[in-house]
Amino acid sequence: MTTTAHRGQPPTPRSHRRRSGPAHADGRGRKRKGPLLGGVAAFAVLVSFTTLVINRTTPTDSGSDDRPAAAARPSRSAPDEPSKTPDRSVKPSSTAAGAEHSKEPGAGTSGMGAPSSGPGTFTTAGGGSGTVGRGSRLLRYEVVVEDGLKQSAADVAKQVEGILADPRGWTADGESAFRRVTGGTPDFVVRLATPGTVDKICGRFGLDTGGEVNCSVGKDVVVNLRRWLPATPVYARDVAAYRALIINHEVGHFLGHSHVTCPGAGKPAPVMMQQIKGMHGCVPNVWPYDREGRLITGPAVP
Fold this sequence. Notes:
Elements: H1 2-7, H2 14-19, H3 22-25, H4 29-57, H5 69-72, H6 92-96, E1 122-124, E2 137-146, H7 153-165, E3 176-180, E4 188-193, H8 195-203, E5 215-217, E6 220-224, H9 225-228, H10 239-254
Parallel strand pairs: 2-3, 2-4, 4-6
Antiparallel strand pairs: 1-2, 5-6
């Protein structure tokens, strides 16, 4: 910076000027008076000039780029599934982790001919399910699929039901119970939608899903068709498992869970870890709890 340049070349100290020149050598005070006053005046002028330059070159607060990143743009924390923070999911902030932020190699393809956009209208899976889980918090949910897709709402609902009913799922927390319903006022809605529609839904909450990732916002657990079909390299041979990861991750955000990271090499990857960003030494895992009912988690993500 200009200010640094000025500070690196300070004025010559007065003690040095006193030792130079014949007036200092002969020791006569009368001859030193003129040069001394002149030196002081010159020094004052130099200080004033330096101050003026510094004031004109130092950036002001109004021109600063130190704005918080969160204020500049929504978090793309997107996610491993997308993400969010201990967000009760009703808050955009909780899902700014809500968005599956982060793209991995090969994730940009449309995958199996999936359409990039749709009408934005949905068909609700009919019927319902029994209650799974013994928790006191009963959460009723609907499953809807965007119109025009090859995937039927009934088939997607069946898969979601199976995921939420698994004993290694969120019912193992001892608090949550789930029941799929049709109509009424559900506690949350699982939506399978095209990338364009996902972007619109998540974008209303300030999330940038970039046509690639899922999100959890408000009462919506939004699943990107681009993820539902081709999955990811780690789960390429087990798409059903990856779908379980998607649902468990996003519903986890709805329940108030935030992102964590790998607890250690060789250990199961937590479902709240953004696995889409890399396994970091952990082994694939798509369930929040193990078969003994122990929560699979790791260090919180700052």
